[in-house]
Design brief:
By secondary structure, the protein is of the alpha/beta class. It has 13 helices and 10 strands. Strands 2-1-3-10-4 form a 5-stranded mixed β-sheet, sandwiched between helices. Strands 7-6-8-5-9 form a 5-stranded mixed β-sheet. The longest helix has 20 residues. The radius of gyration is 23 Å and the shape is globular. The termini are far apart.
């Protein structure tokens, strides 16, 4: 009997010895341009909540930086391997010597929308002439996107009263009826609606400002491509969940960010706007359009927002897109 038990114990020990030892999850600090609980970052939070990063053997911590340009600078300086901003951001920072690229963009649409009051007589961008428009700040990408859209209909920034009102004021001033339009992200449109404003979205397809992007430094792209591939893949799965089923994604998101309990209707409305206006019509998910990047850069240079153009291939790479597990 003792021999049998000893033999069984030996077999168990050998089985454990033969079993593969899983490496500890790789810890990654992911910089975001604003607090992670902002609905705009739902793809990241859903990917975290549903274990998509964990499936890639990653332990991701999200940290808020001071806007997309700060994210890019921190990544370029080697303080983080990855971060979020707008697809336009590399155009701005690369001209100043910051070595970062966009490695994915979350959607084929623009993150910037122009909302107007229903029945206010504004039917198109051309109708913005002489109107008051709120933006977050004069250095935010949504402001530059507004200028690009206005230029497309031969309007300059002096043709309207553009007010920098901050991330809350941008929709609060509009909702109070003190501005006729706002330029900003879907979150702000829904906030204005929740505050009682009746909002129409006007067409802004003339200027192709980009959606949110994932950024990495030249050094990380060269030396840690597998890590970036895993991070991009997991994040895009979070975006895909919103595209497939906004209601189910809302439930997951509220689990991740409990402060939104009771506000599910607003979150679902935000997700539907991202699905319709920002995420849609991108194949494959995450792919960056080089011609679009070049067109946006030409505008930034022509307006003096950046001093010089960079080689377009230095602004982005699609090498991490469409990488199945």
């Amino acid at each position: 009997m003792h021999k049998i038990l000893a033999s069984a114990a030996c077999a168990v020990a050998m089985a454990f010895a033969a079993a593969p030892v899983l490496a500890a999850p790789e810890e990654v600090t992911y910089l975001l341009p604003a607090p992670p609980n902002t609905p705009a970052f739902a793809p990241w939070m859903i990917a975290q909540q549903k274990g998509y990063y964990a499936e890639e053997n990653l332990k991701v911590s999200f940290v808020a930086a001071k806007g997309g340009v700060d994210v890019a600078k921190q990544i370029g300086a080697g303080n983080a391997v990855i971060g979020g901003a707008i697809g336009d951001t590399p155009i701005i920072v690369r001209a100043n010597g910051v070595p970062v690229k966009a490695i994915a963009v979350l959607g084929a649409g623009s993150l910037t929308m122009v909302g107007v009051h229903q029945g206010g007589g504004i039917k198109s961008l051309a109708d913005l002439k002489g109107k008051t428009i709120t933006v977050m700040s004069y250095t935010d990408t949504t402001y530059y996107a507004l200028l690009g859209n206005m230029k497309h209909v031969d309007l300059g920034k002096s043709d309207a009263a553009i007010q920098a009102a901050g991330p809350s004021g941008v929709w609060q001033v509009f909702a109070a009826g003190k501005s006729q339009a706002l330029a900003g992200v879907p979150d702000w449109i829904v906030s204005a609606t929740d505050a009682g404003a009746k909002v129409d979205i006007i067409e802004t397809n003339g200027f192709k400002s980009m959606a949110q992007a994932i950024l990495a430094s030249d050094d990380t792209i060269k030396n840690k491509p597998e890590l970036l591939k895993r991070l991009v893949r997991a994040t895009l799965r979070g975006m895909e969940d919103i595209m497939k089923d906004p209601k189910a994604a809302t439930a997951v998101y509220v689990e991740a960010i409990p402060s939104y309990k009771g506000k599910e209707a607003s979150i679902e409305q935000i997700f539907n706007m991202y699905r319709k206006y920002v995420y849609a019509n991108q194949k494959p998910l995450g792919q960056i359009d080089g011609a679009r990047m070049e067109s946006v850069q030409k505008f930034y240079v022509s307006e003096g927002i950046v001093s010089k153009a960079s080689a377009v291939n230095d602004l982005f790479t699609n090498q991490f897109i469409g990488t199945a597990r």
